[in-house]
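Subject: Sanity check before I submit

Could someone independently write out the structure tokens for this chain? I want to compare against mine line by line before I put it in a report. The sequence has 283 residues.
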Amino acid sequence: MDSCKTCHKSLYTRKDFIKKVAITSASLCIGMNLTSCKKDMVVSGKNYYIQKKDEMLNDFDKLSLIVNKVLLKEFPSSKVNKWKAEAKKEYSRLIPQIPYIGGDDNSLTRTLILSAAFIPHFKILRKNGVTTRQNGKILFDASKIYFDKKISKPLRPIMGWYTLSGFNQNSTKKNALQTQLLKYKEDWVMEFVEGEEGKFEYGVNYKECGLVKFYRIHGVEEFVPYLCITDYSLFTVLNINVKRTQTIANGGPFCDFRFIKKGAGPKGWPPESLPEWTGKFES
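---
Independent answer below. Compare away.
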């Protein structure tokens, strides 16, 4: 009986560890996520973003510091500071227009909020003669700084392990089924792909992309392919090999993520090095 108690205790410890890693993952808000993971209040529907506006503007300021660091390498501080002020005003006006896709119950809400935060930057830079390609490089460089700062080196192997774990795969399966209910038309729609031995651990096919939908409405769809490649900044930090051969943003019928194993994968830049890249919006 004593040995059985020991076994039960060991099993509990492993389960407890996995739960703690999952909680840690959520608290990091990985994926270029702007908003914090706090759930201090229950907010739903159209009021979701309005009630979180102060928090979102505060997070926007933090993001702008990273963007400005990149911009100052190419532009004078007088322009950069002016653009920063204009971008914050525009973002404040944009917040009520962000589509509701489930709020805190949908992890992709944070991705949507971040994408909204970049729209004012893209529009202002485009208006001032910055090309789509230049905008894309600014975004990619900012993403590298963000992830390097956001995820500490001791946590990186843990996060990499969790991403590939069976625990995360089960969670992804559940999320995929929820999106297939089509509860929110502005949301992503995804399907889980079982792994193939010797090829990949598991995969995710995104049949609809919330970023493409949102950016198209606001006239900035040409920047979404560059948002996509910021994923590789994250995968590089986590030391995970993830590959895609196509994305909706690049004109494909769906986005085919394949999580292969731990180890070096695509770096993301230049985008022409990626199978998914078509240069659809390049002149």
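---
OP: Matches mine. For the report I'm noting this point. Residues 1-20, 26-41 have pLDDT under 50 and may be disordered.
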